[in-house]
User: Which sequence fits this backbone?
């Protein structure tokens, strides 16, 4: 018998916490294991450690009730399901780093039980689910490994955990059926595939989005070079024309998943995934392009540049892999001074929106938070790759 239904390992983060809260809200006994004790203290006080729409009232209801918290690794043994939200990172050479995942499993292996089921939740390099199952079997354990990737839009987890189909995969039919029943507490739309297919589905999904954004950004740069209005072209293309309905706008394509997953797919293809590498060069090159375009018109080495919005996307406080910081590094070299502001990101070096607007010669929109539509820029030069600020406010 198990004391808890579910242990979410790394459960204090953007992937694990919403899932933990959702399962606890559905009556499951959930324990979060996380080594970040500061985050656990915040959760215990019913405080969200990051922005997540609609989660705060549910967290307040379940914490210290159906949802428990621990930093004790031995508590992993207490649950039937061990949900692991640690994925495969990429190193500084853009190669998948297996060491992180292997080291983690070496740490928890002594706390696993034969009758447990592991659910891998974050992005994995293709074939790693099978490799981890083999490692566990090689230790004499019968613990079953499944891969059930999350595909949640950050900030919308409490909605999409219930509305999106859940992919389920594994090597043992009984384990798969048990995991399917677990996720049916959240959604009845379950898609069962082989583990490699599930791994590729996760990577393909994020890479597809990354390539779509790169296409828009490449078109934006092309239009800018020839003094054409990209957004007039965009409107012309998409107006009542269903075949371009999904064509995105330009902007910084960043965050903890898109770039990383594209590079993992490139590595899996033995670096023959030229489309993915091209998308990376376009998206990662956009901040530099914006600065070079400014240099054609201004002596920016004598000017103060302000970056408004430092999160990796709108309505978020998450700065992981944010291209606003890449833009900041470029401007710190090229311009006289750089000011930064963000309505959600807490940083003592940041200034208020008013101070940034008043003291900047040039303002660049890094993250298009909704609040910025209400600001007035008093005739300052504004670089708005997102086309976010109303013309009358410039």
Assistant:
């Amino acid at each position: 018998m198990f004391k808890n239904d579910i242990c979410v390992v790394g459960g204090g983060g953007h992937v694990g916490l919403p899932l933990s809260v959702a399962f606890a809200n559905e009556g499951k006994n959930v324990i979060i294991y996380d080594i970040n004790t500061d985050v656990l203290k915040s959760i215990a006080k019913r405080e969200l450690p990051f922005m997540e729409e609609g989660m705060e009232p549910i967290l307040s209801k379940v914490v210290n009730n159906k949802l428990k918290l621990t930093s004790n690794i031995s508590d992993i043994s207490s649950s039937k399901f061990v949900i692991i939200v640690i994925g495969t990172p990429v190193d500084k050479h853009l190669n998948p780093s297996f060491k992180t995942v292997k080291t983690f499993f070496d740490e928890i292996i002594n706390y696993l039980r034969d009758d447990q089921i592991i659910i891998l939740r974050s992005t994995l390099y293709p074939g790693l689910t099978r490799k981890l199952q083999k490692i566990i079997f090689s230790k004499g354990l019968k613990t079953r490994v499944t891969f059930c990737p999350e595909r949640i839009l950050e900030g919308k987890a409490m909605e999409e955990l219930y509305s999106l189909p859940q992919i389920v995969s594994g090597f043992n039919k009984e384990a798969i059926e048990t995991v399917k029943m677990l996720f049916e507490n959240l959604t009845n739309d379950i898609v069962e595939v082989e583990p490699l297919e599930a791994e590729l589905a996760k990577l393909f999904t994020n890479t597809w989005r990354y390539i779509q954004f790169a296409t828009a950004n490449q078109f934006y740069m092309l239009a800018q070079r020839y003094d054409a209005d990209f957004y007039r072209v965009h409107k012309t293309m998409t107006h009542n024309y269903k075949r371009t309905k999904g064509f995105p706008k330009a902007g910084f394509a960043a965050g903890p998943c898109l770039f990383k997953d594209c590079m993992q797919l490139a590595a899996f293809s033995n670096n023959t995934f030229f489309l993915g590498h091209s998308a990376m060069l376009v998206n990662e090159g956009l901040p530099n392009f914006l600065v070079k375009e400014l240099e054609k018109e201004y002596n920016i080495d004598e000017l103060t540049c302000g970056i408004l919005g430092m999160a990796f996307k709108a309505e978020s406080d998450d700065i992981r892999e944010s291209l606003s910081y890449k833009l900041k590094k470029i401007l710190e070299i090229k311009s006289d001074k750089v000011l930064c502001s963000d309505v959600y990101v807490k940083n003592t070096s940041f200034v208020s929106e008013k101070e940034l607007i008043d003291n900047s010669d040039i303002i660049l929109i890094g993250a298009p938070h909704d609040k910025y539509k209400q600001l007035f820029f008093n005739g300052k030069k504004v670089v708005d790759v997102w086309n976010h600020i109303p013309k009358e406010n410039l």
The longest strand covers residues 4-9.
